[in-house]
Amino acid sequence: MVLRCMWPWVAMMSLMSGTVDADDEFDPPALPDNVEELGANIQRTMTLLATSTPERRNRVRVLFYGQSVTLNPWWQTVADYLCTTWPNADLEIENRALGGYGGPVLIKTADYDLYPFYPDLLIFHVWSGVETGEQEEIIRRVRQRTTAEVLLWTSNLRWPNSVPPDGDPNHPDVLKVDAADAAISELYFRLAEEYGCEVADVRTGIQRYLADHGLVVKDTIRDTVHPNELGNFLIASFVIPSLRYDPDFPTEPWRDLVTDVPVDDPRVTRGEDGSLTLTFDGNRIDVIAAHTDDPAPGSAGVLIDGRPPSSFPELYYHARPSASPHTAWPAIHRIGHQAPLVVETWTARILECDPENDVLRFEVEGSVTGPDGQGDHKQRFVSNSGRVVIEPNEWMIIRSLTYRNLPLPEDYEVTWETLPLFVDTWQAPVTEDPAAEYATTLAQGLSNAEHTVTLTPNGDGPIPVAAFRVYRPPLR
């Protein structure tokens, strides 16, 4: 789901003021006791939003990631709040959450959903993977592989089917669920300390709201876990207060994560051939085009450490595969490789599918590689070229058919792309909008270390460069 700030917003500003219009359906919750501390760990994102003006619109990328609760309507309320409160920012907001996918599976899908997207802000919650470590590992990898700030939100409240809505809150089944949710909260507050994350304490906020209004947990959910209208209102109500800008917060935690180096900076050297060279420390480098009236700017060759970016194997990735039949689940959790990749489209055709006997056989073919072997979903598959590796039981097709109790559609096949995180040639854009920022990623996914980038004009027109932008994740 992608939002580019194009639809009307349902006003939430009453939340921040503590007042509510007479037409609003729900009473606003009390603001958190620590409201003045909220947002301290996401101030790079909030500064980009707050300093956007009609004359200079900063680009900001936000990703919601998690499970089915993250797909519920509260996320759109939060997204609309961002768009409306900071209308001068060029916001790109996506929700790539996957229903039913706990930490042990999301740690696999994050390889194509999360790190390549490289958000400025990640809004994250997952139910499982606390004791087994996957949740912490995802956050650690975010801080290693990206400069994203992280907003963790503690769980909304759940209630087991085995206990009536007005049943005993000390029933063992209730206590079991509550203990699991408390463990998520404890984890998130620990991760905030260790990895510099922000925490929106949804769990405590809803507990207080229920007590203040004489309600029970079931008043906020439509089954055992998914929020109803009130529940969605409350989750948004306790996430939004963290999305605040405060210029008095210290800048040290974030100011060196992403830095702009103007083209006239002494660190940028110019060659006799018009080339521009910068030595930088990080895992991603962008070029920011200078605004010009030239209708036909030229292009430049790109070198990283003296090599074309396409020669770096780590700058390619297998993108999310198409969906399993009758569901939104990706057909394959994770696709690896043991040979260098090339940009191409892959197709997996089903040769045999028998859900009752757990049989799934397939063949894969790449648009560049060509036919690349056959496999079985219960065996480790390594394609002939080595460009596709699928571990046992990573396929979701059998589970999807069993879950929906439907047959495999005729001519069903799985497709995905191998995509580049680089350009070998930078084509300077036509900068028609003087307020917009025209940034191009030259290379993303490098080792988080010292590198050198060189742009060399191809002689087909001017290459107006304003700056380089360097991204250095906080963890090596």
List its salient traits.
about 475 residues; alpha+beta; Rossmann fold; Jelly Rolls; 3 domains; seven-stranded antiparallel sheet; six-stranded mixed sheet; 20 strands
Class per helix and strand makeup: alpha+beta
Question: What is the H/E string?
Answer: EHHEHEHEHEHEHHEEEEEEEEEEHEEEE
The name of the CATH superfamily of the largest domain reads SGNH hydrolase
**β-sheet strand percentage:** 25-35%
Helix content: 10-25%
Radius of gyration: 24 Å
Estimate the mean pLDDT confidence: 94
For the report, how would you describe the main beta sheet? Answer: 7 strands, antiparallel
Structural domains: how many: 3
CATH level 1 name of the largest domain: Alpha Beta
Query: Helix segment count?
Result: 9
Oligomer: single chain
Q: Kindly identify the CATH topology of the largest domain.
A: Rossmann fold
The appropriate CATH architecture of the largest domain is: 3-Layer(aba) Sandwich
Count of distinct strands: 20
Stretches where pLDDT falls below 50 for ≥5 residues? 6-23
Label the overall shape: globular
End-to-end C-alpha gap? 31 Å
